[in-house]
Fold these 4 entries.
Entry 1:
Amino acid sequence: MRLQKILSGAMLALGYFAGIAGAQIKIGAAEALTGNAAQYGAPIRRGFELAVGEINGGGGINGQKIEMVIEDEQGKKEEAINVFKKLIFQDKVLMLFGPTLSNSAQASDPVAQSAKLVVFGTSNTADGITSIGNYVFRNSVTEADILPVTLRMASQKTGLKKVAVLYGNDDIFTKSGYDNFKKALQDLKIPVTTTETFAKGDVDFKPQLTKIKAGNPDAIVLSALVAEGAPMMVQARQLGITLPFIGGNGMNSPRVFELAKDSSDNLWVGSPWSVENPAAENKKFISAYQKVHTTLPDQFAAQAYDAMYIVAQALKKIKLTGKLEADRKSLRDALPGVQWTGATGPFKFRQVAGRDGKPAGYDAVQTAIVMMTKSNQYVIQK
Amino acid sequence: MLAQQIVNAISLGGVYALFALGFTLIFGVLNVVNLAHGAVFMIGAYAALKAVVVLQLPLPVAILVAMLVTGAVGWLLEKFIFAPLRARQAPHLAPMIATIGVAITVTSLIEGTFGSENLRFPAEVLPAEILSMGGGAQITWLELEIIVLAFALMAILLWGLRKTGAGRALRGLAESPKAAALMGVNVEAFFRVTSILAALLGGAAGVLIALYANAVFPHMGQPMLHKGIAVVILGGMGDIRGALLGGFFLGFAEVLSVAYIGSNMRDAIAFGLLFIVLLLRPQGLFGHVAQRRA
Amino acid sequence: MEWLDSFWATYNTLVLSIGTNVLLALSIYLTLATGLLTVANAAFMGIGAYTAGLLTTQLGMPLIVALILGSLLPAVVALAIGRPTLRLSGVYLAMATLAFGEVVRILILNAEGLTGGALGLNGIPQLTQWFDVALAVVLTLVVLLRLARSRIGRTMAAICQDEIATEIMGLNVRAYKLFVFVSGGALAGLAGGLNAHFTFFISPNEYGFERAVDILAMGVLGGTGSPWGAVIGGLLITLLPELLRGLGHYRPLINGIILILIILYSPKGIWNLFRPVSESTRLPAAP
């Protein structure tokens, strides 16, 4: 078993490094490799590396191998801008992935847009990103698309009549999630008993949870990342709150089982990716990932992995002339038409409107899988 | 709900007080705003976690291990940073900036070694039984332990400072290092002891709060540092009782503002209160007269 | 020339950041040189950034107007809170200004309708050109260097050394303190406005504790003996992460170590190492 793991790791590494040796297609990635957001940037990087290793190991794209240039944007907006500029003007990449946080994307994506090369986010779900322009792409499905599906399924199965809402009001991701939750709740005509907030880095949620408990809701709708969400679930159970939690895709991570252990049951999330999804492509991805990293992958890794394959499909269709500007443009033109079934299921793009009403960037179109946690597993609900 | 919120306030206050004790000690005696206290706190949490998970030690032993590790860090801080700066007659801001550098370095070391993801203590280790108190309120054993510990530590420290010779020397030192030296107090040794002691307290706080929140991650010291500064100002910088009372005051202010005003204004109220207290009573609610430093 | 174009395209944000960071360092130099430990400049920067950003995005005002108003508003706020706050001294002043900064940040966060709250202010036009920043820095530097040698500058240093003695000599200490506090606020606001217009997007969390600590570090590391210290501090703090980029994962680690080493070996700041010998006969200005 060990030997097998070493061999697979070696093969992947060979495939990856072979890419560097016969360096031909330069793809950049700006992700948070240090700092607070590194817990998301790290799995994203692993997803990219896995995909690149496989693609290069299979002969590359039209005979050319991919060379990845990964830079650390530290989860900070100014760094993201600097790193983007370095990748675009100094390394002269063909396109680039990232950044990790929606916050950074707002600042750095315009740089790619005006430089006319594709920027592809795999973890940016907040509003206002793809509307920046027609060179901005993402395969991370927005909360606006997933949450209504999750809510509808959860309310169907639990018969909930009213909910309480808890969200992080100082982070663009959780705040954006909240805005979408609010709208979905209004559309479904589900009344809210109370809305409470917390800040990133908080460790104590008992005051908010106590207030929520007093309002007697049937479920708690949560816009948070696992780092805060898991302690929240633990503390809620400690206070005697047995209600279901309904989360945004920030809560879709197997880490919730480690972090919330006995209190992790009864959490509803929707996402295009589920570790339990038995589809063949997903199983292939999960076992390939586990061979190298032993742990299970999460949504961040899955989306990064698929994103690389999506770009690979577009690259297959175009002919690279070696003239940077022209190549960057032909990649951008080939990308919207790509349809791909990867670990996150069938995927295609959908163009959105920019702030001025004209057609701009491209969001993801994927179906959400709704899951509920039970005994340390995400159980798919139908 | 009120009963539970009061319980919440007391246990949150206990958490803040624990952190603030070490922080205020360094300011009171060494006159340094130790912005590395958050990092020390975080090291305590990691040390205990690894002691439990890797060395398979029982929790109380792990806490002692954590305190040993952080005590060593406190010693290092004093020996390599505070003492040299004092010897060089550095402006009084310099040590503070140095501690910022220490905090960055240490946090990055831990992040590089253990990764940036949240880790947690294994469930078996946590004293998680829940007790019911009157009025529908519930509290866990752990929270009770934290509150009791905060009070106990304060009591021990106060007793030590008032009743023992060493304690009196320390208080004299805090007032005036020169006078204490003239009285034969080994100033350098006492500074070292203080730094170690403060770090011990920080480490203990780190473990307990890591258990409370069940989250251990490299940047966990940062938000605590903000709150710690607020507590110490409210209570009076350098004042032990102030750290405790300030901690509870902040705990109550935060919880009650969430319960009755709105959770999004929680931090604004906490810091707004701080600002007002400073304007009206700069020495803090319980501190002694502020030293005018022009 | 192609080399220059490529260099500028890659590094223009960095160069502009150096400029605004130098302005920020100069803003805190003013108060530090007077012996005031105020750390509200991050909040003033935020107020300036949002003011200028909102004026250009919502009202379409030209940059220069937005910048002027973006420096005025923080100055007014500084004036308002300065009077009561500056009665404090030492660490208490620092904490009061820190608390004030947090309150400002949270107010901006919660004023969603106006500022966009956590979602930030988006789509700020890229109006800042290198000559705007260069002009601001050069002008400020010239003014402050003049100031340092003038009677005002000597009074600042005197207050720093011994406030009570200065008061006894008949100088209106309170007025001087307010003057440096308000000017510092205006400078920080200007830096904020300039910065907002080359980064597209601003959010409340950028103007909190971390930024306040950065600004303080710039002031102290560079040295408070002269405005040149601020220039050094601004340069250092901006360039250091960039220079260390090759170290990848170890970057913050080395960053922290360098900070510690600098303070240990030159506690009065780097400028102190370069001070011409003749100046050492003057009264030391570091607090």
Entry 2:
Amino acid sequence: MTIREAAEALRHRRFSAVELTTAALGRIERFNPALNAFITVTAEQALNQARQTDADLAAGRDRGPLHGIPIAVKDLFYTRGIRTTAGSPIYRNLVPDYDAFAVSRLEAAGAVMLGKLNMHELAYGITSANPHFGAVRNPWNAKHSPGGSSGGSGAAVAAGMVYAALGTDTGGSIRIPASFCGTVGLKPTYGRVSRHGVVPLSWSLDHVGPLTRSVRDAALVLNAIAGHDPADGASSRHPTVDFVPDEGCSVRGLRIGFPESFFFERLDTDVELCVRGAIARTEALGAEIKPVKVPDMAAMNAAGRMILLCEASAMLEPHLADRSQFGPDVLALLDQGRLLPATDYIHAQRLRRQMQREFAQVWSSVDCLVTPATPNTAPRVGENTVKLGGHEEDVRLATTRLVRSMNLLGLPALSIPCGLSDIGLPVGLQIVGPPFEEALILRVGAAMEDGGVGIPPCPVA
Amino acid sequence: MKDWTSIAKAAGLDIPAKDVGRIAPSLNALDETFRPLVRNLTPEMEPALSFRADQERA
């Protein structure tokens, strides 16, 4: 069931928010021991909230489509009175006295918060094999990773524990778990959603966004959390719109860019087949599929990695006196960042501006781009390399290869499921748009979803 | 290739030698891609830093 369906049922009194929340808590109790998606479950608080939302609805106080809907947030969003760990012992005693901007917006919209989701340690990685809170497992196959860093968010949404989850994306950390868990994941434009009250990893690359089971559900969450926040220095004043695509929305006449070079190189065969199939379906739905040349994406990834390494090490340097607090993979990245000179960080930010200018040219010939979200499906838990196109690659570098540049450019990017591999793992497709064109990429995603691009529900959902 | 152990020592960083050895290949690979990009930058290309004085509040 999607948010829209649940919202409709709530208003027709087919069930109450308390019943919906109780059912969601039951699923958490049933599946979380195997999936380890949650670090903290706030059952009592959730039921109290649900009772209040039922009372509000009965009294005619309808706060909109998220009213009474069970959700959860990655455990790096500040939650008043609830421990916020960022998946690290560094924050083991952090109990914030205020809510993150996005959390308070969801609460104002009537959503019922079920708890805090497990994640890659400090959001610095893509496996969510957290050494302190345990590895998150993929609901499609528990031997496989859910991706990360918002791995608990992807797993909880795919397994039907919650209807929506908040994640963060610094180099693909919403779109990768969405791709691996078969959910929708939206990284909005940089500045579209406030980062206030979110434990940072990389100030200039961090984005906040939703993971959901449908494109329109992602739009509903974006409606609630988008908008200017003076408490976030990077928050944009760009006007917000209703992001929810119309029923019967169409891709007819849209010019959809197909960047074959780079984005269609070194792919898992199943990924390539599914994504090409989805593109063919989109063409049949009336879109004009245009081959397009994009600037040097490998160079963008290098600049993005340089900025991330430097900013993350600066952010976490105060804690590095005690190296035992970090898992080996995160510590290795933090050490790398400390060895890079300031001049390289400045150069990377100069390259970022140059690349932004170059990439802006792409939008003169197409309205959006469609690419695979990840070149691979979910690797097995503990797998450090992946073989793609005959080359053995580091699993982190391979998995972030097609998504990282969109953080550097700050562009909105949506991952939607578009097929299953031969062993039944989801494949994700990425739709990228010009700055602040979330409504456009959501429309394309919804039209594709309506047109038959998608996957069956997760077996445990 | 850079001598990362000496760089760590010169910067006064307390990173064990075996850990430096473990991360050196990643740093070298990044440097190999990054260095040629820097050579092509022109002086008028300013960094994309987001700081704006009018946004700062007391």
Entry 3:
Amino acid sequence: MADGISTLTDTTFDEEIGAAGEPVVVDFWAEWCGPCKMITPILEEIAAEHAGKVKVAKLNVDDNPNVARRFEVMSIPTLIVFRDGQPIHRMIGAKGKGQLLQELSEFIV
Amino acid sequence: MAVNGDVRNVIIIGSGPAGLTAAIYSARANLAPLVLEGEPSSTSDQPGGQLMLTTDVENYPGFPQGILGPQLMLDFREQAARFGAELQTVKASKVDLSSRPYGVWVGDPNTPEPTYRGDTIIVSTGAQALMLDLPNEQRLLGYGVSTCATCDGFFFRDQDIVVVGGGDSALEEAIFLTKFARSVTLVHRRDQLRASKIMQDRATANPKIRFVWNSVVHDVIGDSKVEGLHVRNVLTDEVTTLDATGLFVAIGHVPNTDLFKGQLDMEDNGYLITGQGEGATSTNVEGVFACGDVQDHVYRQAITAAGSGCMAAIDAERWLEHHS
């Protein structure tokens, strides 16, 4: 699914993040989180509109507590941008599309 | 017919219970309302409003077993869409209520022309939760300070949490957080609670909740995450330290009325004044109506907001009949 959002787990996280050529925006979310659901369609649009420049992936913190703990996620939604396997930028809280794109613009090149 | 020229019959700003009820009624009246829902956020200032951050709503009639707040708002939204309301997930950035049709801007407020024009406007921008307004509270937002208990409670399993406030929202959050936390300390500036009797009974019966009375949070401590709080007793001025890794604030609300300053009459506390013209929801500007928490600091319930949203839609419909 080139244009879509991939799903990461505790098991697949390192391999998928390490193998990505482009920056990966990881959305830490959970089923019970209302604001998380509000940004899902926005992230899908961003993934489709910037395919090839940035990847978008999601990680359910309820099912995958290890990765969430490793990156000390204490609030969702949290978006962390990874490049070459390393976290380089963190955004906390749901935001509108314009604001998200503005914060992500330096990573979408 | 979706538009009248490029002028809408009704533009509804805000999409909580008030705005979406206004949308259902005006859509069913064939007015094809445009709803500017707002933008996603982790505060109550978001599409769906304050109920998007709650769990069980137990006092909305029609749901004997209760309903989840976000689900209730999705249902409101779907019902409005079913009758032809146009829902845009954008935030109004400016309004011009000086002449009809009224202008509403989305995005850049400095463009000469408004994004939308409407013969009538229904203001349902609601209210949002106050924060403590401490520098360290802002800095540690997302690192122990949370604006959304339902989102973040999970991360505080077996930890000690502080909830600030004494109303229904504070007790609801405190009780919800006991599902995860080892302890929840409620810090309140008075020696008694404002909350309803049923919530007080539940909170006092909960063995994980304790109360610190006559106290306010003076500062939040912690370098990279919350480690504790300095709490000041308002009677003695004594400052003590509370160990806690989480801080949730529920100390009240402010109406979202910045957009209307200088154009719509407000009370000193910023709430819009209604009942000024034709209809109980009328403002000081003809054809501009207000409903829900943006004009109500007394009742502030989903059901009263929905009721006033219905009234605003009927007022707008009658106004259009008489003035077009």
Entry 4:
Amino acid sequence: MTLSIIIAILALSVPVVIRLVKGRGTTPQIGQIRSVDLRAFRNLMDPEEEEYLRRALPPADFRRIQRERLRAAVEYIKCAASNAAVLMQIAEAARQSEDPAAVQAALKLIDNAIRLRTYAFQAIPKLYLAMVFPGRRFSPARVAESYELMTRQVVLLGLQYPTGEISAAL
Amino acid sequence: MLSLSLAWHIVWFARVTLSCALLIVLITQRAYKQFPLFTVHTAWTAVAGTALVAMNYVPFVSGAQYFAGVAVSNGVASALAFAIIYQMFAERANRYPVASSLGSFAFRFTTLIFLATAIALAWFEPAHGPSPWTSAYIIIQRTARMLQCGQLILLFLFGSYFRLSWRSRAFGIALGFGILSSSSLAINAIHSQIAYDVWNQREYIFAFATDFAYLATVLVWLFYFLAPEQTVQALDQTPRSPGGSLPEHDLETWNQELERLLK
């Protein structure tokens, strides 16, 4: 009975919470975009850099620093995923444009934003796991590649559809 | 003071009347083109609800016949609800090819998990009905509602995480099913664990709670179908002329991007 009631409460609260948190049809804002330093992220995920730190530092220091690096990487991924969500809202609006080129660019951007959020969904738990076991190797390179591709697609979309200052903010 | 029986009858008649009103709204707004299965579901609940009210007052209908009517009415409505939830999920996911395969995998996986949970619950927590038929009915309804709750949780979470666009009416339909399935699951879970002896005050409370939840659901659906539909908003709705020059900041960013590519 308890399990059934927990599931019932979840089923009722999830849509209500989503609507309360995200609001109804909110307009995407440039202020929601957070800058992501791709180079710094790649450096954090570089296996050679990790290997260098492992050799240069005592094991306890390496584990502490590696945890800090992974925490920073998680923050970068969260920012990139959050930016992807904002870009999806813009692309969704551009999808209804009368210009076929804008629609095409918007569709590509949507695909890549979904892909990035899928990678982020997979990468974040792995990075947390790597924080618990700092010796474990994990490189979410696909997140960086996907983010880079997405920024290019925003620029492409900006040529056909008003995207404000978003491409510059990325 | 209003008796429990009278309160239940008022809620019951109100929800049947409002179901008929919802059907009229769907037909007049031609919403059946956009939501054909939901229209069929509404038509079924309106017709079956009216038939059950009539059966309740016709002297030659026995208790067993009335129970069979309730079981058929709820069975068909549940099957239609499953079809609607699946259709809503498939339609949303199919609009985004990248999310489509992940979505269908997640849908199947969630259905299996919740089906296994519901079967385990049916095994370990059987219902205590006055007859094997009513016990089986309570268990089947609990299983169906649990599956619907699981699928709706996935529908909301999946769409929310991937920011898949959702028309306000489709959200309203899903929210209505969320209210209906969750309240029905909770009522069924409590009902299945309480030993039944005779139709007493407690049974009136369950009947009142069930119909009240349905009334709330119909009101939610009516609200979403009577309110103007929300559309996706753009950052700036000013159209750009095909021959017009591009703003300077776009060209600057374009140049920066090319530089980055050439490096």
